[in-house]
Amino acid sequence: MASDGLFNPQPLIARVKMLINLQLKDVLRREKLPVSGAKAALQERVIDQIQLYVSRGDHESYGRLRALINEPKGPPTPSPVQPRTPQSGVPLPPIEPTYTLPNGHPRPPTFPTAMPPRPYTTALQPRFKDSPFYTILEPLTPVVECKVRENTRDQENVKIVFRKDLADRILSDPSLKAMVYCAADPITPYTLADIAFPYQVEIKVNEDEVKANLRGLKNKPGSTRPADITKLLRIRADYSNMMRITYALTQKKFYFIVNLVRQHPVEELVARLKAGRVITKEQVTREMVSKAQDTDIQATSSIMSLKCPISTLRIEVPCRSTICTHNQCYDAPSFLQLQEQAPTWTCPVCYKVVGFEALTIDQYVDDILKATPRSVDQVTIEPNGVWRQTSEDDTRSQPKGGRASSDDDDEDLVEISDMPRVASVKNETPGPMMRTPPDSTRSGSTSARPSLTGQKRRAEVIDLSSDEDDDPPRAPKRQSVANSRPQMNGLTNFPSEPPRRPSYPSSTSFQLPRLMQPNSRATMNPMAPGYRTPQ
C-alpha cells in the first residue's frame, strides 16, 4: 500500500459505518458515484473510494473525501460522540482499529445488482480471552453481526481478500492460520469474551463445509476452539474468498470475525515451561516439613503416583499449578494436548481452575522420575520429604488381592447352584417341587467350570446325601450327564414311572438354589415320557 503517515483510513472507514443512508448518498453524489442500492452497497462504494485515494497517494482527494465524511449534510448521525475534524494534512488521532480491510490494492467501484448485506458494526468489537495456543495478529474481515432468529434461519456472507504481502507471509509461514472467532451477546469493550458459536450453525468457505467442532463441551463455557479455515481458502492476492454463515433458532446475537493468528504447538509451550519458573526441590521439602510440624495434623507417609492422571502413562515432564496445594503432578504434554482439544483449564487432580501462566515444572518429582526406572509407578513419601521406592510385592499385592476376592465370591455363587450329587434325592421329589432344576442341568454347569470344584462343594454334597444310604448308586448316570452339554430337554434323569410320594421326612427336602439355569423349565415339558400332572 502506498500510504504514509498522512493516511490513516481505519478511523475514516469506522466513521463511514456510522452514517445513515441520506448522508452516504450525499457523499456519493459529491464524489459523482451512483447512489442506488442498500446501505451496505453505499458503504462499500465509499470505502472503495477511500482505498482508491490512499493507493494513489492523492492527498487532495483524500482530504476532500475525509471532510465530506466527517461533516456530512443531512440529519446528524446516531452516534452521540462526533469525531473532531483535524486540520488538512494532519492525520487523525489513532484509535483502536475495529478491523483491517484485507484488500490492500484498490478495486474499481463495482455496482452489483444484489449486494449481500454485511451487518457488521464497529461499536461492538469483541475482545477474546487470550489463549497460549493462538496469538491474534490482525483481523481479516469486519465483524459480522448475526441477528436473533428465534423461529427462522438466516445467513450472512463475508468476503475474505488477502493483500499480496499477507498472502506471501501465510504461504511461507505454516504457523500462520486463518481462524473464525465468534462471541455471543452481550459483549462490552471492557470484558473479554469466550468463543461461542450458535448451537445450530453451518459455515462454508468457497462452498466447502468447515469440518470443526463448534460446540465445545456441554455446560463448559470457553471450551470451544476457533475454527481453522486456512486449507479451504485460496490464498492469492486480490482473490475474493466467500464465507457463508447459516444459523437458526438463536436467542441472542452472535458476532463473527476471521482473524489471522499464529499457532503455537504443544512442543513450543512445553519448551516455554521448561525455560520458565520451576518449583525447586528445597521448596517442596520445606512445605512438607512445615505441614508435618502442624500439631493438629498427624503426618504419615503417603503414596505418590508417577503416572499421569490424564494419560495413565508414566509422567515425562512433571508440572502442576502454583495455586494447587497438592504435590501430585501430571504430564505437561498430555495436559496441554487436552487443553488444545477442549480448553477447560482445570487441574486433573484437585479440579481448580488454572492458567498456562501458573503452570510450573516440579523439580522434586522430576528428580524422582530420573532416579527411578521406568517400571516404577509409585513411590512412598515420608513426612520429612524423604522418598523411597515402594516394594514390588506391595505394588502387586493390591490388584491381585482384589481379583482374588472377586474370584472367591464368584465361586461361592456357583457352589450354591451347582450340586451334582443331588440326583439320588431328585428322583423322589414330590410333584409340587418339580420346578427344581434337573441334575443334568446343574451337572452341565459344573462341567463347564471344572476348576471351581472345591472342598467346600464336596462337604456340602455329602451333607445332603448322607441320610440316603438305601438309595441305589447312580454313578453311571451321573457320568453320562456330566459329560454331556446341558440341553433344553433335561429329561434324561427322569424315571419311566411317575414321581412317588417322598418317604423321607419333610425336614430333609433339599433347598432351592439361588441361581437357576435358564433351561430348568424344561422339567415342566408335558411332552416328556411318563409325565403326569402333579397331584
TrEMBL record:
Residues 438-454, 480-494 have a biased composition (Polar residues). Pathway: Protein modification; protein sumoylation. GO terms for molecular function: ligase activity; SUMO ligase activity; zinc ion binding. InterPro entries: PINIT (IPR023321), PINIT_sf (IPR038654), SAP_dom (IPR003034), Znf_MIZ (IPR004181), Znf_RING/FYVE/PHD (IPR013083). GO terms for cellular component: chromatin. The keyword Chloroplast does not apply. Keywords: Ligase, Metal-binding, Transferase, Ubl conjugation pathway, Zinc, Zinc-finger. Pfam families: PINIT (PF14324), zf-MIZ (PF02891). Residues 293-378 form the SP-RING-type domain. Belongs to the PIAS family. PANTHER family: LIGASE SIZA, PUTATIVE (AFU_ORTHOLOGUE AFUA_6G05240)-RELATED, ZINC FINGER MIZ DOMAIN-CONTAINING PROTEIN. This is SUMO ligase siz1. It comes from Heterodermia speciosa.
